[in-house]
Design brief:
Layout: H1 2-13, E1 20-24, H2 30-42, E2 46-50, E3 56-58, H3 61-72, H4 90-99, H5 107-114, E4 116-118, E5 131-132, E6 146-148, H6 149-155
Parallel strand pairs: 1-2, 1-5, 2-4
Antiparallel strand pairs: 3-6
Helix pairs in contact: 2-4
């Protein structure tokens, strides 16, 4: 019985690496995109999300900004330097969204989270690679029903620049 448990543990730890998957976040609903990415990294894939600033949040623009600004007011009662810390960059917002969808305190979640990379725009080393996108995470309504992650980040204090393209 103990040997079977040992074999199962070894099998779980020795997951095969299935290569790097590059996911284009442009025009995708952020939550749906992140749920697909969370499943992929838990299965052992290395996943890179590009164009994080072009990922979409559904809902009314001003209501979404207002709700996120209210969320930013949550801090420590005694000293705000103790956290919680709220991301303002589009890539870190997406990273935290994925982190919320994996078991981040378990060993499997910690290992999976190390396999995730999120970038604003497309890095030079990934320009020629094939991009994957998930059809069910693409936006279906007109653009006026969504706000981009970059626009939200600008509204809540991100001082970076959005790359055109």
């Amino acid at each position: 019985m103990a040997e079977q448990q040992e074999l199962k543990k070894e099998h779980v730890l020795l997951k095969p690496e299935r290569g790097e998957i590059v996911v284009d976040g442009a025009g995708c609903i952020a939550g749906r995109l992140c749920s697909h990415v969370a499943k992929l990294i838990l299965k052992g894939n290395r996943v890179t999300i590009v164009n994080a600033e072009k990922a979409m949040l559904s809902g009314h623009r001003y209501k979404t900004i207002q709700l996120y600004k209210e969320h930013l007011e949550i801090s420590s009662a005694t000293n705000p330097i103790h956290g919680p810390f709220h991301p303002r960059r589009p890539d870190t917002i997406l990273t935290k969204m994925v982190r919320g969808m994996i078991p981040k305190r378990k060993a499997s979640g910690i290992e999976a989270f190390k396999r995730l990379r999120v970038y604003i725009s497309i890095p030079d080393r990934l320009r020629n690679s094939s991009m994957k996108s998930f059809e069910d995470s693409k936006i279906t309504k007109p653009m006026s029903h969504y706000i981009t992650m970059g626009d939200l980040a600008k509204e809540i204090g991100w001082s970076g620049e959005m790359h055109g393209g």
